[in-house]
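User: Can you help me understand a structure? I only have the sequence.
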Amino acid sequence: MESQLDEIRRSFDQELGQAREPGDIEKLRIRYLGRKGRLTSVLRLMGKLDPGERPRIGKISNELKAYMESRLRALGAELTEGKEISARLDVTLPGRACRRGSIHLINQVLGEIEDLFMDLGFSVVNGPEVEDDYHNFEALNIPPYHPARDMQATFYFSEKTLLRTHTSPVQIRIMESSDLPIRVIAPGKVYRSDSDVSHTPMFHQVEGLWVEEGINFSHLKGVLEAFVHTIFGPDVPLRFRPSYFPFTEPSAEVDIGCFICGGKGCRVCGNTGWLEILGCGMVDPAVYDYVGIRDESVTGFAFGLGVERVAMLKYAVDDIRLFFDNDLRFLTQFS
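Assistant: Let's start by predicting it. Here is the structure, written out as tokens:
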């Protein structure tokens, strides 16, 4: 009888593999499990078996019956669902094209900036967005009483822990942990409590730092001229205007010729013909004291730029909030 059960299982598997319609499943159920089915007919012969064999054969028979019922249910459900889908599907309808995404404009501009500076020999470094007061302010020559802290509109977690207000703390961490020469840029998110058409509470900065023997302001000028002419075009004029930052001395702001009026003066540029894009300067010697650089022959420069501001100027965007509103009508223009 055991050989008969094996033969029934092989035959059942073969016929089940040929089933293509829900009706085929019912026919198989009747053929094998119905009142006159093949398995039922064999089970009726159990009474003629030796009493010692009945438990073992009974177990095999029950397992086979459960196997058949399970396979029939599964295939029946699969064939029925396939029929329902086929009935709903109109293959004559035109296909639906998949919508393609694109890289966000800010990431596009950030990628351009990173590629440019890597071509100039800079490495890309990163640091924590949750910073301590020492690296964000004090080591950058901004002590607790300094008025520049009021300009930052800082998000504090505690007296000594905050969301970084610029990526300059990465420069301090790199100078603390790296050997000279140092030539790096530090791109990343920064946070300030400010929101209007030209400011958001979160935005992106790229800080640059070059420190080694013999670096002077002409190196800084050459690097930033390469940046401006690569990003905005070779004919864009630029100027360095004296300014003040606690961690650089001398300091400057870099302006480029206004795209709107061509330098003649308009509402956008405040009738000056110039638009400010970044701040820069030679690293203040006081900063070297904080990071343990004692060699007086070592000099360097630093600069910082806002990625959103660069994108606004390059693509004539008049409201920084458009970058973060997730309006596809705006974003798809830059796909």
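Now, to help you interpret it: Residues 54-88 form the longest helix (35 residues). The chain has a mean pLDDT of 87. Let me know which part you'd like to focus on.
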